[in-house]
């Protein structure tokens, strides 16, 4: 059979997506995601760093304040350096004068994000007060307390007791007989002869790890009297405050120390509020109850009981434990708000805390009461309750940063979120020789009621043209373009009277060329056969397939072959029906479509009621059908 080769114009097509969430792909207020702790300590003369890093589009610029006044990082000779592209500052050779309350701000013109207030303090540890050595002379078996008045320290020091002489010291191993109270005093429940250390002194030691300093108090010498230990009933010696509170999440300790000889044994019980909490540790050989992470459920009445073998009535100490807390988020904290034009943005700053915290709102780092921005003062920003706020009828000009400070006597938390309005997503769906197709998401368009269209011009031209669609359409074609030319496009959205433009994108139409030849080989009642030239496929390495649909349907189906096959059958078609076909070629990532061709399958009666055709009649009829198909092609 003679083959009719139908040549189509090459229409190179590809797909890429540009997301335009509120110009979020173009602009977005900053959001600080790396910042210091509330307290930062440094050792004098040693470099200290305060990180401040934000994201946003465009990238933000950074500024700092110290003690609420502008802090110029370049105005401190070479000691203060701000790292490139971030707000992090490094202070070299810091001095006492560098102490203060710092705050970092990130501003990109679409909003201003702020860190918490950072308390920068120099670490230091003073010397103990000078005092003469003290000699203690208790009777064997008696209790003994060695006092320690800790020196001033920033941050608070760690402390312990050691036995030392002029050359070295040995830290004391605490046990049920010898322990520390919370005020750094050494408590000995009963003195033993072994407590005499001759020329070695008991000394209180204070340690500041940040300053890397250790200082020692005055020496204490123990010289017990007698040769036989005196026995003593259990007596109260020291305990934590009876009415005491701890902070949720912190480690918390209750301690009671009893004197007596023999050494008292201490037990703990929870008197009210349920059983002893799981995970609670008893240390120091009984006298100390430790809550690793205090919870509200740990509140209640606790009792420690001390006893020894000669005591008739045990010693008892009761504690009323209350649990308070710094503010904490109950719904994850303040969240970024990306809303459609014309919608409302809601801000929730819900937090817990004991005592109940109070909330203050900020906009771009400025307390709400001091904001003069007309976008806020025009009544569209509303504080609904103490901890919720709303921005109504959001516009693209409303890009900003909303903040809240939640405080009580134990501290504060800082919420920082950005607000932006976004546009529906759009897609540059395909590009051909003489057209560009653009589509939108119908859901987004219905939500915003936005009218979308594309403005375009050939690169180098000054005048913009447009292809308009209303909000119910989801696709537009820019037609009649020049093959192989570069065009500038921008997507425009109009909501009410507000016009928004995307950034300009350059898109090149495809140049004129050819795809491999193909043949519509035969058409039957329920099939269409299509063949290709193997030589052409080998040359191009192109994967070929046919997309087809019944006339009037919207969804395309396809029959796929790889590049080694030269024939495909479109099966299971309806007799006597008209189908739309297009041949698709894909080379690497490029997609080529022919124009759409209409082909009708043969009807039942065309087969059943006809006599068999002679070879000549069959050939002439087939050629006529091919010519008819060829005439309907628009290539």
Task: Explain what the structure shows.
This protein has 635 residues and is mainly beta. Among the domains are: 12-20 and 423-508, Sandwich (Immunoglobulin-like); 26-122, Immunoglobulins (Immunoglobulin-like, Sandwich), CATH 2.60.40; 330-422, Immunoglobulin-like, CATH 2.60.40.10; 518-632, Sandwich (Immunoglobulin-like), CATH 2.60.40. The chain is built from 5 helices and 57 strands. Strands 1, 52, 53, 55, 56 and 57 form a 6-stranded antiparallel sheet that branches. A hairpin with a 4-residue loop joins strand 18 (158-164) and strand 19.
The secondary-structure class comes to mainly beta
Number of helices: 5
What ranges have pLDDT less than 50 throughout 5 or more consecutive residues? 1-25, 607-635
Rounded mean pLDDT is 84
Q: Name the assembly state.
A: single chain
- Principal-axes shape call: elongated
**CATH architecture field of one domain:** Sandwich
Rg, Å, rounded: 42 Å
Q: Portion of residues in helices?
A: under 10%
* CATH topology-level name of one domain: Immunoglobulin-like
**What about the largest sheet?**
6 strands, antiparallel
Range of strand content:
over 45%
